[in-house]
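Hi everyone,

Forwarding the result from last night's run.
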Amino acid sequence: MNKHTELRLASLAFSGLVLLLLCQVAAAAPHAARAVVTHIAGAVEYREDGQTYWQRLRTGMALSEGTAVHTAEESVVDLALTTGAIIRVGGYSAARLDKLTLETKGLPGTTTTVRQTRLTLEQGQLFCRVKKLEPGSSFQVTTPLGLVEVTGTEFLVDKSFIRVISGELVLKGDRVRAGQQISGSGQPMPAPGDDAIASLYKAFKAETAGLDGIVLEGEFVDLQRLMSLLRAKEGVVAPFMTVANPAVEVSPTIPDRRPAKPPFTP
């Protein structure tokens, strides 16, 4: 084998390796994450993106981005986001899942999962427990008080303030740290630790504690483990979702359809 042939073979081998790596990286395009309904108390309905009717929400359903959720008075719904967060939509509230995506970046053996979450709270209360984010990941909540940007924290949003339980967040350029709360026009102030809102948050944290190991501590949310936990905790068979790795496909919607106007108007 002459030197020219050796160089040609080496060049082809290198090109093949580059092509293989590019294919592996390209195959890791962003894919849809989901919000799994882990608990419901009271009356809760949802509307998928592009639909004009509202439907009754049930434990075990997997919601996609663009879905809106409404709760009646004295009702709550807990959602485990496969982007690494556990949230509770409080009573008489309206929220929307604007963006839920996962993307694997990097070369084989050195990959990281970039998680993108964006929610909107139009009305009411929202409690959030967010896994510490990797570089490039984001967790944002558009609220009546402004845009909340999180790096990994526990916080709650009420109609007149945002309170940080642990970690920190940014609202309109103001950094709000653990034990503080901020209103739409004020500066971060010490938050009371024993009022009614604090009690509601403690209840939320206690009732979702069993999800920690999968949603908050796990590097990647295993939906099969999550559903197994739900079945053990709630006795749910979860007939409304199927797992097709790496995506989750929601099966046909439940039959009871409602008019376009929300049944409860927050």
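The longest strand covers residues 94-105.

Cheers,
N.
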